[in-house]
Write a structure and sequence with these properties.
Elements lengths: L11 H19 L4 H4 L10 H20 L21 H14 L3 H17 L6 E4 L2 E4 H22 L9 H18 L5 E5 L3 E5 L13 E4 L1 H8 L5 H6 L3 E4 L14
Parallel strand pairs: 3-5
Antiparallel strand pairs: 1-2, 3-4, 5-6
Helix pairs in contact: 1-3, 1-5, 1-6, 1-7, 3-4, 3-5, 3-6, 6-7, 7-8
């Protein structure tokens, strides 16, 4: 789905720091997991915790691999396109994840190598560098914003799979993830009838209908960042979030059930 509106800008230095910091939090937590915990189930189909931990290294190793490939002449994927173009690659990603988990029994070594490579590659590459990716070409900074989505979503998956793990979410990573997914909603359902608020990180207008100009909007949805991320990625449903009072929605155009998830 092509993006119809100008993408918000992201500070390249903050995005790099956010990706490295969130990956560091995950690395430290994975290093504490026992064999029994690594063999446990996750909410991601038949993936074990080990599979999920291996997949998380893939999400950032993709940056290093792309930086090693020749640079395309120009980017052809906008940041807001990305949430809508990844689904066709899900099976290949899942196969690669299982192969990596089987081939890398030493997760500590895998995480150390992946983190060191990423840090070194990022130190030498400008944010405007165009990357040759599976889905097309996009700039390094834009791709790093998508990595915050992968890291935040799968950090939450790990925390759900291992009670008490409680990996922290870095503020800048959560902010970028929240904003990209909120902007993706506005791109999927353009309009100005409904205001979606995810304080303190994002407010977007979406859904066709009478446009709100001032005063209290007639259709308002509000939720917290982590609930929004779970809704946008299919980790929870609109009905369940409403029933748990994790989402407030007022107005006849404030039901987002038909628009979610954005990614699955």
């Amino acid at each position: 789905m092509p993006a119809k509106k100008r993408t918000r800008s992201y500070d390249p230095a903050k995005i790099r720091a956010a990706v490295l910091a969130q990956f560091g939090q995950i690395r430290r937590a994975v290093g504490t997991l026992t064999p029994d915990q690594l063999a446990g189930p996750t909410r991601l189909g038949d993936w074990t915790v080990r599979d999920l931990a291996a997949h998380l290294t893939m999400t950032v190793a993709a940056v290093s691999r792309a930086l090693d490939r020749p640079e395309p002449p120009k980017a052809d994927i906008a940041l807001l396109d990305y949430p809508f173009v990844t689904a066709p690659f899900a099976e290949a990603i899942a196969d690669g994840t299982r192969q990596l988990a089987a081939a890398e029994p030493d997760l500590d070594a895998l995480y150390a190598r992946t983190g060191d490579e990423l840090t070194a590659r990022l130190a030498a590459a400008p944010g405007s560098r165009v990357l040759d990716l599976r889905a097309g070409a996009m700039t390094l900074t834009d791709f790093l914003v998508t990595r915050t989505v992968e890291l935040v979503v799968h950090t939450d998956d790990l925390n759900a799979a291992v009670p008490g793990l409680d990996i922290p979410l870095e503020k800048q990573a959560l902010a970028a993830c929240t904003r990209l997914l909120a902007d993706a909603l506005a791109a999927k359902a353009p309009g100005g009838a409904t205001e979606v608020r995810v304080p303190p990180y994002a407010v977007v207008q979406c859904v066709e209908g009478p446009r709100h100009t001032r005063g209290t909007p007639p259709n308002v949805v509000e939720t917290d960042p982590l609930t929004w991320v779970r809704l946008a990625t299919g980790r929870t449903t609109w009905a369940d979030a409403r029933d748990a009072a994790l989402v407030s929605a007022s107005g006849e155009r404030a039901d987002l059930a038909g628009l979610l998830p954005l990614m699955s």
